Amino acid sequence: MGLFDSHVHLDDAAFDPDRDAVLARARAAGVDRMVTVGTDLASSRAAVNLADQHAGVYAAVAIHPHAAAGATEDAFSELHALAAYPKVVAIGETGLDFGGRSAPVDAQRDAFRAHLALARERRLPVIIHCRDAHRDVLEMLADTRTAVVMHAFSGSVETARECAARGYFISLAGPVTFRNADLPVRVAREVPASLLLVETDAPVLAPHPRRGKRNEPAYLRYIVDRLAEIRAVPVEDLIETSAANAARVFGVQE
Question: Over 80: is that where the pLDDT of 1 sits?
Fold first, then answer.
């Protein structure tokens, strides 16, 4: 079983010069499946198109909290239509971002509720973006009946334990490889194997030793190697477990 990158943004302009080469390098590095994630209507359309064009690429559609002010009724009508495409496997990324450069909080909450309703309607998992808002996100997720993926998890060990107790999948990214990583390493030891996902979030969050450069799915192996070291398991086991978890939550063939 190959690597499964649970969260990437293949539509990003950073990949415009060499997108096909990026995908080829990913396959050469053993990454044979990935979910490309929308952040607004344009990128959600692009995600669906990329999934249609490439084997092993799946799509998620949503309006990011940063763009929540644009989550109008018309926008959600289009999201509903996009979510019906066969290779759309999740709604996301959505959630809350209290980091200071996002949309007004009320707009974020309204958009988050609408995304959760869409996920329920389509019976799809929801991919959560959360920055400085874990308590609020967990409160809003309390009654959700869809699978939950906590993308690029940045919360505390206690929050990770609460997410795991609820059965949420926890996706770990490049920060776990950083030389100054402390909290990400402690979280990485806590995540139950059955709920662990791995992601690049490319083109951002490039792992060590590529930190500061454009990230791409081929670099997922750096993250997996470091996680296997932290968790004291064979890297092959971690690859198999995380890929099987991703296949399960996104409903794709193993």
Answer: no
